[in-house]
Amino acid sequence: MALRVVTYVLIVLLLVPLAAIVATSFTTLSYVTFPPQGFTLRWYGEALHKQEFLDSFVLSLGIALVTAVLATVLGAPVAVALVRYRFPGRDLVNAFFMSPLILPTVVIGIALLQFYNQVRIGSTSASLVLGHVIVTTPYAIRLIAASLTGLDPAIERAARNLGAPPLRAFRLATLPLIRPGLMAGAVFAFITSFDNVTISIFLATPRMVTLPVRIYNLWDQPMYPWLIAICSLIILWTVILIAIVERAVSVRGLFGAAGAR
Amino acid sequence: MRVSERLAPWLLAGPVVLIFVVFFAVPILLLFAGSVERVDTATFQVVERFTLHNYRKFLFDRFYLGVLGTTLRISVLVTLAALVTGYPVASYLRRAGPRERAALMLLIVSPLLVSLVIRSYGWVIVLGPRGLINSVLTGLHLVSAPLKLIYTETAVVVGLTHVFYPFMVLAIYSSLQTIDPAVVHAAQNLGASPRMAFWRVTLPLSVPGIVAGSLIVFALSVSSFVTPTLLGGPWVKVVAYLAWEQNLVVLDWPFAAAISVILLVLTAAVMYAYNRLVERGWFAGVFQ
């Protein structure tokens, strides 16, 4: 019983900072204070007129979508190779693909920035996407591999025996069954990319700032209520995403991958 | 086995391996190579190709060592805080029914889906001079003036514990899950009190989860810099912040590379040492 109380108190504490943002975003005062005074939607109106934040949102959305597609497309064949085949160097390949999760993200960010400058690619939206793909593909591989592991390879073999060529057999027999894994991989890559600050901080340019970096860059400014309203909108959007995802794939399933980080 | 069967995994994984080699492995290796160069920070010309100058600069300097000390202290505190608060929640999850467990899990992991930056701003509101905690304390007349909570090491520890908490809970929970309840029942049948059964049976058996969780949380804390900057302000500097500053403000890239390598080695060393201790059964004696 005591354990139950402790657990619920701690879980409420976990949600306090996010609840504080949502509560404060309705304040009628022009500075951030707690408890918030009154109720107004004024700051939301103001937030939606911050053109640079809207631009950043569109940029983050685009990068996250492309990252999600690439991470899934690159992750799927690797997952198939790792789960379906025993080959020399398999453990090494597995460790190699998991290493972006083990290396400090800030180190990856610095390494990529220095590399892009050395090879004169510089920071473009492509280099930003590539950076995000490096840190999200491992999750996609893991989630897709998890959905493949439970599958009987005999299903695909049966399709082959019935005369289907390998790719067709895979597409018709295996692909529909691992769709939840592919979905989970794509969604997780999307969210991880959309939230990413540590890689983006290094690869962003003055003309190309993702949403979390745009918010981060105001760290030495006073907390404006419209900024809190923007944070609140992002929380709302995350809640909606979770609700959609929870229907399609289990969020707990996603964290089999995240927890192993 | 036919040749095509042996080639298949490489046809599948090969192109992706290549992409990761070029855009991940090579940049990391170049970072090592760059860390032994030396540039003149006024002209940005490389003045030495191979030197340990950058490493000496970091390791023989009071200021940089102080930052390293702060980083390690913060990381240890975050690990302990996450462990102490994570263990009871993980134990409760183990006992809860499937529906309750699912709901609680969702609440525990969902903050992970909100960007670090936003979670840190939430703590600024909670810990600020006119924030939640201070208004409660002054409202109850427990303190006469608001406490300085934000922009302190404590704020950084609180913020990081919050960020990495789910990893600790999940790690401990998954090790608790592997314990056969019959073992605990057996201990109690043999006369152990529930408390004794916990200290002598459950806790030692969950050490792998404790180790795994602590390892992840410590490694993530050592290299974090977004939360420390937002909650520590200019007063709490961590190693990752130095690397960022040298790279993007001072533009001394070789020094930034050297700090990154130090961070990398630090993370690797902690993981290795921890693993070795577990392999040697060092932890088995702790709870006797």
Would you summarize the structure shown here?
The complex is a heterodimer of chains A (261) and B (288). With 261 residues, chain A is mostly helical. Helix content of chain A is 74%, strand content 0%.
Structure description:
The complex is a heterodimer of chains A (261) and B (288). Chain A is an all-alpha fold and 261 residues long. Chain A has helices at residues 2-24, 42-47, 51-84, 90-102, 105-118, 125-149, 154-161, 166-174, 179-195, 198-203, 211-216, 225-248, 251-259. The two termini of chain A are 32 Å apart. Chain B has one domain: MetI-like fold. In chain B, strand 1 and strand 2 form a beta hairpin. In chain B, 74% of the residues lie in helices and 2% in strands. With 288 residues, chain B is mainly α. Classes of the chains: A mainly alpha (261), B mainly alpha (288).
Oligomeric state of shown chains: heterodimer
Top-tier CATH class of the domain at 59-208 in chain A = Mainly Alpha
Please estimate the helix content of chain B: over 70%
Instruction: Supply the helix-strand structural class of chain A.
Output: mainly alpha
N-to-C series of helices and strands of chain B: HEEHHHHHHHHHHHH
Give the CA-CA distance, first to last residue of chain B: 53 Å
Tell me the number of strands of chain A: 0
Number of strands of chain B: 2
